[in-house]
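Example 3.2
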Amino acid sequence: MFRVHHILLLVSLSFAAPAWANPVDLTTWPDTDVVSGSRGTPVSYPSHSPFTLWEVGKSEALDPPTDARATLFLPDGADAERPVPAVVLLHGATGVLGAREMTYGAQFAEMGVAALVVDAFGARRDRASGFIDRLLNITETMLLADAYAGLRYLDELPQVDGNRVALMGFSYGGMSTMLAAFEQTAATLSPDGPRFAAHVAFYGPCLARFDDTTATGAPVLILAGSEDGIVDPERCNEIVADLREGGAEAEFVVYEGAYHQWDGRFAGPRMIGRNLAPCELNVNEKGVVRDTLTLLPMSGPFLRKVILGLCVESEGYLIGRDDAVRAKSNAAVGNFLMRALNSVER
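Structure, written as tokens:
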């Protein structure tokens, strides 16, 4: 019955919207084994590296130009006559994973959606190469600079409908995805450019809240597991409330029994890292990021290290692959993106 209803919905969309709208069906995800080995095409495009929003455009020293690196997955048959929607994917703290970002990218392409998998760490190896150094020197704002530059890159491709591009991030990239949903971020990083049509955050720590809660208006979906210690549900609900107050549809979905990185490569549960959940940050109207406990500004790697050192718990958090949860999140993300991307007019 659900399948019949969905087919009727797609048919109605095809009649209600202009032919170029090209609605997509994301109800049936290709098996990960089917897309295994799909590598996409390496691409590069101009970006920049601000430490926080405050540094954007200040000077070349504070906001140096950077050649972004990414992998582009284009669906077969995508062309300028019927441009396809797209998803920009932001990786977690361990970088781009074959089992996660690259697999999602290949799955989206199989379903008729272009995907751009951003490698923010790979583009900034001169800043840091080790795990801890990367997290201190390559910030969420740098990931977002690459994301918005990637949005402009996709907007210029004739095969892609630049008005129907979603942002999807995992863990570290999930934090960035939530930040991108606020208008202050979009206006700073893409003042005269396009906006993302939707935001999906997978198990991103909910750390930063904005003084100005005005949202871009694009819908936001935040996903987390009940056993994920790095995600504070109370804080996530506060951010959801901020987004709703700012004019966005926002939803926080918790999967019972799921750990962090349920779509990763490692079976679990296993303990990793250090826990960021106790950290609380504030972004003021100038784009300055402060720790709410010490009021120290996160204005460089040294103060970032001090701030995180004071709030991070030494005990880590549990991760664990769970294909059943992945199937549930695929269904939720597919339905969410269909509503968002199929309703946008060019």
